[in-house]
Amino acid sequence: MKGDETAVLRAARLALLGTLGALGLDEVALRTRWRRNRLLILGYHGVALDDEHQWDPTLYMPARVLRRRLQLIHEAGCHVLALDDAVRRLYDGELPPRSVVLTFDDGAYDFYARAFPIVETFGYPVTVYLTTFYAELNRPVYDSMASYLVWKGRGRVLRWPEVLGRHGDVALTDDGRRLVRERLWRYPVEHGLSGRDKDALLARLAARLEVDYDDILRRRLLQLMTLSEAGELARRGVDLQLHTHRHRVSLEEAVFAREVGDNRERLRRLRASEATHFCYPGGVTRREFLPWLRRSNIASATTCAPGIASRRHDRLLLPRYVDSAERSDAEFRGWLAGVAALLPRRRQAEAIGQFLEEPGAP
Ligand SMILES: [Zn+2]
After folding, report:
1. Which residues lie at CB < 5 A from ion ligand 1?
2. How far is the CA of 44 from the centre of ligand 1 (A)?
């Protein structure tokens, strides 16, 4: 039922945005004082190198969709600002009309290879919230790659009793894939696997599914860019900012601060000035984080809560519109104009546990 409610609400919202667009009202909204005092922070994750957008359309979009979005921003006459400048102007009441900021999370290799060349042709400033552990390691992110490989093997039957346990023989339908994914995510934790062991497990999984894993590794799908590639982008004008070292937050201040500190220390080697802007990994926000972020000299923090930022927002809880290929042009234009932020929407699902370390975790 929940899904149906969401679908109905979404359909109503889209119909309304379509009507507003047809009447030219988003055009009018773009020019209001209300919009002028607000900052639209756009959030992106991956731009597909191959078929990643078919695997997870909420995280990945085809390059043509990103190009189309930037074209719509251009056509709407938006001012795309650098994050640091935009946050300062927001609280000083000095934003130019139709302000927008572009942010990309994690710092995937596809940002380096696919997204940045597109952004560069528009000449827009861009921020990458770079998580540094896997960038340093230069290996695929285990959970994502396990899920992607299982998707590549869809329709097959997987026999792997020593890893899947009693589910020795699983047909990779939607349900079967979910079961295998969860088993694969738990397995390294239960068996205390090292990073190297996890890599070997992914290679064994790919072999069982007859997926060409060497080819996936060679093309660097689902990998982060290296620190040297990130440094190259910084020299070309990309603003690298904080996203924690291991893409984790913690309920213990010392661990939380260490994550920010370790991340900042890596970024210090890549950027000219200290990184002071933060993005919550997995969008996990909690009230207790705010004083910790202040003590870490964080100037702003962005969430995945959809909205358009105003001076009334705490600068450590700035809303962000996380864009995806599933959004229509009308919906995206509605967000540029700000009107989409005013329409009713369901509350976002609560914090995702996988990004939150419990106290006492290593
Ligand atoms: Zn992230």
Report:
1. 105-106, 281
2. 10
User: How far does residue 106's CA lie from ligand 1's centre (Å)?
Assistant: 5
183-191: Cβ within 8 A, 24+ apart: 184/146, 184/147, 184/150, 185/143, 185/146, 185/354, 187/163, 188/142
Per-residue pLDDT of the chain (362 residues), as tens digits, is: 444 557 777 777 777 777 777 677 677 777 788 889 999 999 999 999 999 999 999 999 999 999 999 999 999 999 999 999 999 999 999 999 999 999 999 999 999 999 999 999 999 999 999 999 989 988 888 999 999 999 999 999 999 988 988 767 899 999 999 999 999 999 999 999 988 899 999 999 999 999 999 999 999 999 999 999 999 999 999 999 999 999 999 999 999 999 999 999 999 999 989 999 999 999 999 999 999 999 999 999 999 999 999 999 999 999 999 999 999 999 999 999 988 877 766 554 443 444 555 444 33
Cα 243 to ligand 1 centre (Å): 7
**Residue 200 CA, ligand 1 centroid: distance in Å:** 24
> Could you give the CA distance from residue 160 to residue 141 in angstroms, rounded to a whole number?
22
350 C-alpha to ligand 1 centroid (Å): 16
Q: Please tell me the distance between residue 40's alpha carbon and the centre of ligand 1 in angstroms.
A: 19
Q: Which residues contact 227 (CB under 8 A, 6 or more apart)?
A: 132, 135, 136, 266, 269, 270
Expressed in angstroms and rounded, the spacing between residue 46 Cα and the centre of ligand 1 is 10
